[in-house]
Specification:
The structure is a homooctamer of 132-residue chains. Chain A is α/β, with parallel strands linked by helices and 132 residues long. Chain A has two helices and eight strands; from the N terminus they run E-H-E-E-E-E-H-E-E-E. In chain A, strands 1-4-3-2 form a four-stranded mixed β-sheet, with helices on one face. Chain A has a four-stranded mixed β-sheet with strand order 5-8-7-6, with helices on one face. Chains C and D meet through strand 1, strand 2, strand 3, strand 4 and strand 5 of C and strand 1, strand 2, strand 3, strand 4 and strand 5 of D.
């Protein structure tokens, strides 16, 4: 378990801040914390995501090795994320799938793509003890 | 505040997994969760960090736009991180500094570099309500 | 999530304090904290509600733009509120309804009216992450 | 104490939504959750504040009987709010003061005014058990 | 909700400390904290119960006005208590019953009797918000 | 530690309910939950206290064997209780004292008397682990 | 309940540290915290397990009197442990069983054996209040 | 951090159960949960300790490789344990000391001996993040 008062901090490039706000706040439903000319910060599922205005964005979205997201401890939270993705037609990279099926590490996962080509992963392990 | 049962998930490249284990577990003091031939996973301050074996590592460490780390809610936790960095002589990018001094967003920060050139940031806001 | 030790503070007008106590404590089941000649304070679902004796009460109850209440994270808590409203025949403004049906913001809601014409809203989002 | 997963819900009028965003997000440092043509929603210190576009705003800001805000359990959180008000020169209604001095109900308080004339109160009781 | 670090403190008479230990620890399954010649202390469902050796015990067990016990927030905890009472054949005062049926205050309850004639009540409200 | 969602339940006699409300709510600052012709219920420091209208009240207040109250885990909470007792001149049974001084069980304590002669004890152990 | 910030500390012998890591981290899925030439430390279900390199290991695994493990409060966590044992074919001492069936102390249990012959017990009581 | 509802489980030999109760409950101040002819169970700092009547006790107390105890997250809890050891003159194995001084793993520690020769360790790390 993690400390509820600290925040994980993730900084990524965004080619356009309005796009980033539209995707993260309007799409994913995360909260916009602060906006500056060169970056925008979000309360991303309780952690801090910062989108820095930058031209150094991925040429095309590839899931490995760089991505970020949330590993949900409860299946219903993962289900709600899936439902949000469908309702708001958020851009996915592939389809929701099950990884390491039949092993202790089995988990459901989905990859999304933000407007700058950054890849997000949301997942949920059958056994939350193995989420690390 | 964030849910203590979920975990933020961050995946980054590592050119060598032994190096990654030496830096993250032996240096930063995070816990090694699982090791596979192509990746190693850590309980990174309560969140999940995955180092994927990859040649796609940064040519040289640059702090923006990509980095990740922890925003501590309590100053003593930031102080302990600084002390660990000194005791174990972890490689820094620049010196610990204060950002946005004299404003509501004022915070202390330090950048570290992992063996693959990934940049980490640890920080602590004067007013934890503004950590997002 | 919110800090469990702080309290949101809401102050509203009441044309008669006995009426206010009868509705809020005897009806809604909130706890009476302190009573003074010119106001009464309540532990309103964990937050602080203060009814100030005042003639500046609404001419008639209108739901927008001013109202206050609780957004429940769990459906069973909303169900219990509905049941209380029925059992104690608390005065409603319209019927319980579903708002933004079929969207990510979908939530159930009910409006109540206090004796001074103040409007209360209780609601519950399908996806608690979108309750803000 | 209150449930950390529920949210108190407060709806108020705003004559202009951009003004509201500038004051609440840019000034008070609360998080912008969702924006629609007729309203904007905030994560206001962990509770939900909704500003509805409306011409029914106060003629002039008066502290009683209607206001809302936060009652902090810890003095340092109140101090931080005061410091934010100074640093960002947020519009106050009067000066910070002490109410009911020398009694069990003693508390520090400050009133702010939002751009539409709504009044906010932030306070901190010497004895947090009496904050209701 | 209550503070999890504090303890409610209840002191009652016991005509015999061995009897008290047999009933409270051996029967009800509460933990024995400390024993002195004139009293024994228990961790009674997280609160502190002290049995003082005394001849001032009830002439016969009567449920009102004096009794003490636990109001469970979750039905399954009340069910487990009932099951324990059956399995260990703890002495009851009457049968488990439902009080205020069909009202918002409806709750299940059972009265037990300790060896000195003190009466205990365990109960569970349909709506935990009304447990006070 | 105890479950924060359950409540300890204490029922005592009161010769007059108005007196009880004046002492418990107006004096001790506990919250009035529900009032009926024959009893009144309080949120007593997070637990449930019920005062039953009864003539079976103590002939005179004696501290042993029957009393009830709170064992505070933090010294500052005990200090605040002492200050409340002074500010509101609540009736005490003796003076605040230290019990078992110089032993591991050392604790500060104060006895109060309610209008019906019931005795309350508030205390605070040097080592909270020994509060049971 | 226990304090979530403290850790129980258990130190046991291991005849070979690689074997210990393979069993505890690779098998049981606990996290490797620190490794030294003469010992390895684990985050064992939130507590600290230390395996000291030693020849003083059990001649053969016997369940009594020495063993250690986890008593799960929730049945689904016990079920997940059983599933892990099956999926990863961890060495058991006997079969999963039910102890004290039909009594208040009824619980499910399973014994495992680590590579050095230390015995682990995982269990789950029907009534978590009796887990001590 | 660990789950507050689960319990670590430690079973050790005791040559005499009365001795064990005297040391653990009367000395260390842990709570006696259940006593049977062949064993006694304790709520040991929130975890479960079981002393099994057995002749297989240590020939003489040696600190390594087998011991158990608590790693406190807060220095004041360790200090209180030290004070208890002094006040009640509990048998120690050596003096309180500091281990790994000047390194990130620095911690204070004390070893105690129970009547059967089992060794207990209580400790406190400067940096609680390294307590595993």
């Amino acid at each position: 378990m993690r400390d509820m008062h600290d925040a994980c901090h993730i900084a990524i490039p965004a080619r356009d801040l309005d796009e980033a706000v539209a995707f993260y706040a309007g799409g994913l439903g995360v909260k916009l914390a602060r906006r500056y000319p060169d970056r925008v910060t979000f309360d991303f599922f309780g952690d801090q995501l910062v989108c820095h205005l930058s031209e150094d964005v991925p040429a095309r979205p590839v899931p490995y090795p760089r991505h970020f997201g949330v590993s949900f401890a409860r299946g219903e939270d993962y289900d709600r994320l899936l439902r949000l993705v469908e309702l708001r037609k958020l851009p996915r990279l592939g389809r929701p799938s099950v990884r390491f099926e039949g092993t202790a590490e089995e988990h459901r996962q989905i990859f999304l793509i933000d407007p700058s080509g950054n890849v997000l992963e949301f997942k949920c392990y059958d056994d939350p003890r193995l989420m690390y």
